[in-house]
Amino acid sequence: VYYTAKGDRAPAVRALNIENGESVWEIVFNDKSITGISLYDSTLVVGNSGSIEVINPKNGESEDRIDLPPIQTSRNATIDNGFRNLTLTGDELYTVGEGIASYDLSSLEKQWAVDINREAKTLIETDERALYVGTGEGYLTAYSLTDGTKLWETQAEHNIDSRPAAANGLVWVVDSVGNLTGFDSTTGENV
Fold first, then answer.
1. Tens digit of pLDDT for each residue in 50-73?
2. Contact (Cβ atoms closer than 8 angstroms) between residue 140 and residue 122
Protein backbone atom coordinates (compact mmCIF):
# COMPACT_ATOMS: atom_id res chain seq x y z
CA VAL A 1 0.00 0.00 0.00
CA TYR A 2 1.31 3.46 -0.92
CA TYR A 3 0.03 6.58 0.78
CA THR A 4 0.88 10.18 1.56
CA ALA A 5 0.96 11.67 5.01
CA LYS A 6 1.69 14.90 6.78
CA GLY A 7 1.54 15.31 10.48
CA ASP A 8 3.98 17.29 12.54
CA ARG A 9 6.66 16.53 9.93
CA ALA A 10 7.17 17.38 6.29
CA PRO A 11 4.95 15.67 3.68
CA ALA A 12 5.98 12.09 2.93
CA VAL A 13 5.12 9.14 0.72
CA ARG A 14 5.16 5.81 2.49
CA ALA A 15 4.99 2.16 1.50
CA LEU A 16 3.28 -0.22 3.88
CA ASN A 17 3.51 -4.01 3.85
CA ILE A 18 -0.15 -5.02 3.80
CA GLU A 19 0.53 -8.46 5.28
CA ASN A 20 2.17 -7.31 8.51
CA GLY A 21 1.41 -3.57 8.62
CA GLU A 22 5.08 -2.61 8.81
CA SER A 23 6.59 0.36 7.02
CA VAL A 24 8.72 -0.65 4.01
CA TRP A 25 10.11 2.77 3.08
CA GLU A 26 9.43 6.49 3.34
CA ILE A 27 10.39 9.49 1.21
CA VAL A 28 10.15 12.91 2.85
CA PHE A 29 9.53 15.97 0.66
CA ASN A 30 10.91 18.90 2.67
CA ASP A 31 9.20 22.23 1.96
CA LYS A 32 7.04 20.73 -0.79
CA SER A 33 3.41 19.75 -0.86
CA ILE A 34 2.35 16.43 -2.34
CA THR A 35 -0.29 16.98 -4.99
CA GLY A 36 -0.97 13.45 -6.16
CA ILE A 37 0.14 9.85 -6.16
CA SER A 38 -0.61 7.09 -8.65
CA LEU A 39 0.74 3.74 -9.77
CA TYR A 40 1.66 3.42 -13.46
CA ASP A 41 3.11 0.31 -15.10
CA SER A 42 4.89 -0.86 -11.90
CA THR A 43 6.12 2.68 -11.23
CA LEU A 44 4.95 5.04 -8.53
CA VAL A 45 4.29 8.58 -9.80
CA VAL A 46 4.29 11.32 -7.15
CA GLY A 47 3.44 14.93 -7.85
CA ASN A 48 4.88 17.60 -5.62
CA SER A 49 5.36 21.35 -5.89
CA GLY A 50 6.90 21.93 -9.30
CA SER A 51 7.94 18.38 -10.21
CA ILE A 52 6.84 14.82 -10.79
CA GLU A 53 8.90 12.10 -9.13
CA VAL A 54 9.07 8.64 -10.73
CA ILE A 55 9.76 6.17 -7.93
CA ASN A 56 10.54 2.46 -7.76
CA PRO A 57 7.66 1.18 -5.60
CA LYS A 58 9.69 -1.76 -4.24
CA ASN A 59 12.52 0.22 -2.66
CA GLY A 60 11.39 3.87 -2.72
CA GLU A 61 14.33 5.02 -4.83
CA SER A 62 13.84 7.84 -7.31
CA GLU A 63 14.19 6.59 -10.89
CA ASP A 64 13.50 9.84 -12.68
CA ARG A 65 12.08 13.31 -12.27
CA ILE A 66 10.12 15.70 -14.46
CA ASP A 67 10.73 19.31 -13.50
CA LEU A 68 7.69 21.32 -14.45
CA PRO A 69 8.77 24.58 -16.05
CA PRO A 70 6.50 27.63 -16.05
CA ILE A 71 3.80 27.60 -18.74
CA GLN A 72 3.94 30.23 -21.51
CA THR A 73 0.40 31.48 -22.11
CA SER A 74 -1.17 32.62 -25.37
CA ARG A 75 -0.92 36.21 -24.08
CA ASN A 76 2.88 35.86 -23.68
CA ALA A 77 2.60 35.74 -19.91
CA THR A 78 4.48 33.14 -17.90
CA ILE A 79 2.69 31.31 -15.11
CA ASP A 80 4.15 29.05 -12.46
CA ASN A 81 3.32 25.38 -12.95
CA GLY A 82 2.66 24.84 -9.24
CA PHE A 83 -0.04 22.32 -10.06
CA ARG A 84 -2.75 21.28 -7.64
CA ASN A 85 -3.31 17.70 -8.69
CA LEU A 86 -2.58 15.04 -11.26
CA THR A 87 -4.31 12.14 -12.90
CA LEU A 88 -3.30 9.27 -15.17
CA THR A 89 -5.20 8.08 -18.21
CA GLY A 90 -3.46 5.26 -20.06
CA ASP A 91 0.12 6.39 -20.73
CA GLU A 92 -0.68 10.08 -20.21
CA LEU A 93 -0.20 12.11 -17.04
CA TYR A 94 -2.19 15.35 -16.71
CA THR A 95 -1.37 18.11 -14.20
CA VAL A 96 -3.74 20.96 -13.41
CA GLY A 97 -3.30 24.19 -11.46
CA GLU A 98 -2.95 27.58 -13.16
CA GLY A 99 -2.51 25.62 -16.39
CA ILE A 100 -2.93 22.09 -17.72
CA ALA A 101 -0.03 20.01 -18.98
CA SER A 102 0.10 16.55 -20.52
CA TYR A 103 3.10 14.21 -20.24
CA ASP A 104 3.75 10.90 -21.97
CA LEU A 105 4.85 8.62 -19.13
CA SER A 106 6.63 6.12 -21.36
CA SER A 107 9.04 8.84 -22.58
CA LEU A 108 8.57 11.43 -19.77
CA GLU A 109 8.14 14.05 -22.50
CA LYS A 110 5.70 16.94 -22.28
CA GLN A 111 3.03 16.62 -24.98
CA TRP A 112 1.27 19.98 -24.53
CA ALA A 113 0.49 22.72 -22.02
CA VAL A 114 -2.19 25.41 -21.91
CA ASP A 115 -3.23 28.34 -19.74
CA ILE A 116 -6.70 27.78 -18.25
CA ASN A 117 -7.41 31.38 -17.17
CA ARG A 118 -8.81 30.21 -13.81
CA GLU A 119 -7.18 28.23 -11.06
CA ALA A 120 -8.56 24.70 -10.81
CA LYS A 121 -10.06 23.95 -7.40
CA THR A 122 -11.11 20.35 -8.00
CA LEU A 123 -9.49 17.08 -8.80
CA ILE A 124 -9.41 16.16 -12.47
CA GLU A 125 -11.92 13.81 -14.08
CA THR A 126 -11.42 12.29 -17.52
CA ASP A 127 -13.38 10.20 -19.95
CA GLU A 128 -12.30 8.83 -23.34
CA ARG A 129 -12.04 12.28 -24.97
CA ALA A 130 -11.88 15.07 -22.40
CA LEU A 131 -10.50 16.29 -19.11
CA TYR A 132 -12.96 18.07 -16.78
CA VAL A 133 -12.04 20.61 -14.12
CA GLY A 134 -14.08 22.76 -11.73
CA THR A 135 -13.21 26.12 -10.16
CA GLY A 136 -14.07 27.97 -6.98
CA GLU A 137 -16.08 30.41 -9.11
CA GLY A 138 -18.37 27.58 -10.22
CA TYR A 139 -17.01 27.05 -13.73
CA LEU A 140 -16.84 23.55 -15.17
CA THR A 141 -14.59 23.35 -18.22
CA ALA A 142 -13.86 20.50 -20.63
CA TYR A 143 -10.48 20.27 -22.39
CA SER A 144 -9.38 17.91 -25.17
CA LEU A 145 -7.12 15.10 -23.97
CA THR A 146 -5.33 15.27 -27.33
CA ASP A 147 -4.09 18.86 -27.32
CA GLY A 148 -5.67 20.77 -24.41
CA THR A 149 -8.09 22.74 -26.57
CA LYS A 150 -11.02 24.11 -24.55
CA LEU A 151 -14.09 22.18 -25.73
CA TRP A 152 -16.71 24.02 -23.66
CA GLU A 153 -17.25 25.89 -20.43
CA THR A 154 -20.34 26.31 -18.30
CA GLN A 155 -21.10 27.67 -14.87
CA ALA A 156 -22.88 25.95 -12.02
CA GLU A 157 -25.11 27.88 -9.65
CA HIS A 158 -22.45 27.92 -6.88
CA ASN A 159 -18.74 27.13 -6.40
CA ILE A 160 -17.56 23.68 -7.46
CA ASP A 161 -15.48 22.23 -4.64
CA SER A 162 -15.54 18.51 -5.40
CA ARG A 163 -14.26 16.33 -8.21
CA PRO A 164 -16.53 16.12 -11.27
CA ALA A 165 -17.73 12.63 -12.24
CA ALA A 166 -18.02 11.60 -15.90
CA ALA A 167 -19.99 8.58 -17.13
CA ASN A 168 -22.38 7.65 -19.93
CA GLY A 169 -22.06 10.96 -21.79
CA LEU A 170 -22.70 13.12 -18.70
CA VAL A 171 -20.50 15.10 -16.33
CA TRP A 172 -21.85 15.52 -12.80
CA VAL A 173 -20.78 18.14 -10.23
CA VAL A 174 -21.84 18.87 -6.68
CA ASP A 175 -21.64 22.57 -5.86
CA SER A 176 -20.73 24.16 -2.53
CA VAL A 177 -24.33 24.08 -1.24
CA GLY A 178 -24.90 20.44 -2.20
CA ASN A 179 -26.74 20.79 -5.52
CA LEU A 180 -26.07 17.92 -7.94
CA THR A 181 -26.03 19.10 -11.57
CA GLY A 182 -25.48 17.10 -14.76
CA PHE A 183 -24.01 18.43 -18.00
CA ASP A 184 -23.82 16.86 -21.44
CA SER A 185 -20.15 15.83 -21.86
CA THR A 186 -20.11 16.83 -25.54
CA THR A 187 -21.79 20.26 -25.35
CA GLY A 188 -21.71 21.30 -21.68
CA GLU A 189 -25.46 21.89 -21.71
CA ASN A 190 -27.32 21.41 -18.43
CA VAL A 191 -29.40 18.23 -18.51
1. 778 889 999 999 998 887 765 554
2. no
